[in-house]
Amino acid sequence: MTWNHYPPYVSAADRRAKALKKIASLEKKGKKIEPVGTLAHRIKIATSFWGQGWCRHLESFSDYENRLPRGRTYVRSGAVLHLQVQTGNIHALVQGSKLYEINIRIDPLTPSKWAAIKKRCHGGIGSLIELLQGRISDEIMSVVTDPSDGLFPLPKEIHLDCNCPDSAGLCKHLAAVLYGVGARLDSAPSLLFTLRGVDQGELIAAAGAAESLDGRQSSRRRTLKSDALSDVFGVDLEPEGPAEIAKRSAAPKPSKKVKLTKPAMSKKNLKKPAAPRKKE
Fold first, then answer.
1. Measured between alpha carbons, how far apart are the two ends of the chain, in Å?
2. Angle at CA of residue 238, ends 235 and 240, nearest 5°
3. Does a structural domain hold residue 234?
4. Does residue 24 fall inside a structural domain?
5. pTM of the model
6. 241 domain residue, yes or no
7. Number of domain units in the chain
């Protein structure tokens, strides 16, 4: 009888210890490492609009349903040692019983689909900050996150490759990396546009084009509010009401104190005292 031999079980703590050692070893060799880090302290793996949208999109795939939970466990434990997102490709290293290399190829967004997204978003996005922070209207939100025609890839556009012995199409290491992308989008949402091979600035350009048609601001365009500025720039901005403005205007302006200073003395400015006049 032939028995299938699987790698021995490795606890999350042991994987974490191995991960830290491997990171140090790779960095010592001059490798640029971009770890996802441990996410055990988070209730949700992703917390931003784009990160959560990515994860929900993955969880909507019936083919992924049974494999994703193990991936969540791996990414939470910090097993994704390295995750690099480039145009059309995700490269990662995951620490399991061994160090496994992951390559996920993502098809670029087709020109026709990108053109349709830009057309439907025409004039509806106020700024790049709003777009990347997910501060967009429900109408625009439904466009960019549309399961079939939005920015997220379809299962047929995701090509998975892991060098582990698991013969499943989506192993736990690949699932961990896919979730890791969601966590990475929290801090770098523009990577989604990079991954799909499109320029997010074109959505803003489309918004500006709508204004130039009649010189007026589009009714669908939302301006960046003070609370958004506070989040972006770390400044508390409290709007002034009529009472505060009137009070500030009526308050007497403080008088300016002028400080008198003596003119600087130099040898050129020094004059000998005039000789006393003789009495006649």
1. 144
2. 145
3. no
4. yes
5. 0.69
6. no
7. 1
